[in-house]
Design goal:
Blueprint lengths: L1 E4 L4 E6 L9 E4 L2 H8 L5 E8 L3 E5 L14 H8 L10 H13 L5 E5 L3 E5 L6 E9 L126 H14 L9 E2 L13 H7 L14 H16 L9 H23 L9 H15 L25 H8 L13 H28 L7 H22 L15 E4 L17 E4 L7 E2 L1
Length: about 550
């Protein structure tokens, strides 16, 4: 989707040479991220820029800067090359140059992608930005005796830090100082490389779009202890590597310096933490135009609908799109970039956030309460009464005074027509009533997505209410059956929604640790462990992963 970097935004570029970039290169939105990428050599330079005027950019959603074989780069590669192949993962210089050449036709001056933090791929450093600081800063102690624990889940192939078949961090002689990150190739590669593997978060759960109606049916089997979607672990990579990893250096500290330099492990950890400051969609300093949002989750791209049926969010691949769908997607993106259609003016991001804020804690609390059925010390009648109250809380604005079952000898849950007004009130919330012709195609898709998500939440809660209405007067056996069904429904709903707000460490982390997911390329998941949130020791992030 199109986006804007506002005037006055500070941007950072780290490098190991004094020279100033002029062509297409990368900028970070946080200096910690820039320092990570510019502190490998004996000298470290930090260039600080400010946007002199708004910069028009394209915004790639998701984990779009991670150099992984399982899909983060697919959309970019499909747009510029028509194919997404794992052999192209490290063609970063080809990628930025070809993206800039393609984007120039539509007035784009760069692209935003996500790593551990966000980056701007700026097409021309002589336009739109002003250099306000060009400083040599302290180098880093790059001596490392340990390495990130384990290969990347789902990866089949060499370790991404592999050079000449040696797993680990690139060897010292595999990088040369240069005025441009795109002027040196890694040994054995036929492509120029845009620096070292960059950093990125795993794909976050959807914000704007729900799974389309033809995507895999949400699971109904309860998995009460699960906190993230399952992902297969595949790897033929030997781990640990036969040889220890080695960064360039170590370097002597500057004359007069006392004590040790910062360890590279500390630098990498702080880059990840800086990304956590901006744990939002979109990045808080970037203004996106969601009215022109084009996504391959749109069910109009039918080849991907079928391919998603047997996939999890982690294994879905844009690369599975047919040639016809790739061509249609590129055409839609290009038409969106030149469209002059007036948009509705609806703040779709705010509507989405409000919906998530309204229901995320309440669904999570329902799930927590229903999990208590496993505790024999807690009476199920008490659990049922608490759930009944929580459903009443969630449905409060829609609980019409006359939405009550008529007097009858039949239980309220056998004929649920009395609850339909509650469902209608609930499912129509969050949807501004606008004529179709006032909405762009992207807005119609977003509207339908929000409607689908809200309707499904309301459906589950309303059906729960039809049984909760009389739950306090039902016998113990009946209550137990109802609680079991509710638990399956709430857990299945949460798995289907997959909201990022639920991806957290349980129990909460202790002081001195932070909850995180193994990210590209700072800390990999260990063999047999998925991308499950875990507590990371702030002072020893690579070694001390606290399960």
């Amino acid at each position: 989707m199109p986006a804007t970097v506002p005037a006055g935004t500070f941007l950072y570029h780290g490098r190991d040479a004094k020279t100033i970039p002029t062509g297409a290169e990368w900028l970070a939105l946080d200096p910690e991220h820039s320092y990570l990428l510019g502190s490998w050599e004996e000298t470290a330079w930090m260039l600080t820029y400010v946007a002199e005027k708004p910069i028009s950019v394209g915004y790639f959603d998701g984990n779009s800067a991670a150099k992984l074989w399982d899909g983060p780069l697919d959309v970019q590669d499909l747009l510029i090359w028509g194919v997404a192949e794992k052999d192209n993962v490290y063609r970063e210089c080809d990628r930025i140059n070809d993206l800039c050449a393609w984007g120039a036709k539509f007035g784009l001056d760069g692209f935003i992608r996500m790593e551990s933090s966000f980056e701007l791929m700026l097409c021309d450093f002589t336009k739109n930005v002003k250099l306000i600081s060009h400083a040599e800063i302290m180098p880093v102690d790059t001596s490392i005796t340990t390495f990130p624990p384990g290969p990347i889940p789902g990866q089949v192939g060499p370790n991404p830090f592999s050079v000449n078949g040696v797993n680990g961090i690139p060897l010292a002689d595999d990088r040369a100082s240069s005025s441009s990150m795109c002027t040196f190739p890694l040994k054995g590669s036929s492509h120029s490389q845009g620096g070292f593997p960059r950093l990125g978060n795993p794909p976050s759960a959807n914000l704007l779009l729900s799974p389309d109606q033809s995507s895999p049916q949400r699971p109904l089997t309860p998995q009460p202890n699960s906190t993230s979607p399952e992902r297969p672990i595949q790897s033929d990579v030997p781990w640990p590597p036969e040889k220890p990893p080695r960064l360039p250096g170590p370097w002597d500290p500057p004359l007069g310096w006392k004590g040790s330099l910062r360890k590279w492990t500390s630098v990498s950890m702080e880059a990840m933490l800086a990304g956590m400051w901006h744990n939002f969609i979109p990045e808080s300093r970037i203004q996106v135009d969601v009215s022109r949002y084009v996504t391959l989750f749109d069910p109009k791209y039918t080849s991907l609908v079928d391919s998603r049926r047997s996939q999890t969010r982690f294994t879905m691949r844009a690369a599975n799109a047919s040639a016809d769908d790739v061509a249609a997607f590129k055409k839609d993106v290009e038409e969106m970039l030149v469209s002059s259609q007036i948009t509705s003016g609806v703040d779709w991001l705010s509507i989405t956030r409000v919906l998530i804020e309204r229901f995320s804690d309440r669904l999570d609390h329902l799930n927590f309460t229903l999990a208590k059925v496993e505790n024999p010390a807690i009476d199920n009648a008490t659990i049922a009464a608490n759930v009944r109250n929580q459903v009443l809380v969630a449905l409060m604005p829609y609980m019409l005074i006359d939405a009550i079952p008529p007097p009858s000898s039949s239980p309220a849950w056998l004929n649920i027509s009395w609850a339909e007004p509650i469902y209608r009130q609930c499912s129509s919330a969050f949807m501004p009533s606008l004529p179709e012709d006032r909405l762009t195609p992207s807005e119609r898709l977003i509207q339908r997505s929000i409607q689908d998500v809200n309707s499904e939440i309301c459906r589950v809660l309303t059906l729960m209410w039809t049984e909760a209405f009389e739950i306090e007067s039902r016998d113990r056996h009946s209550v137990n059956d109802v609680l079991g069904r509710w638990r399956i429904e709430i857990h299945g709903l949460m798995e289907w929604l997959g909201w990022a707000v639920w991806i957290r460490c349980r129990p909460s982390c202790k002081e001195g640790t932070v909850c995180g997911i193994p990210v590209w390329s700072i800390q990999f998941a260990r063999p047999g462990i998925d991308l499950i949130p875990r507590c990371i020791n702030l002072d020893d992030p690579w070694n001390a992963v606290l399960d």
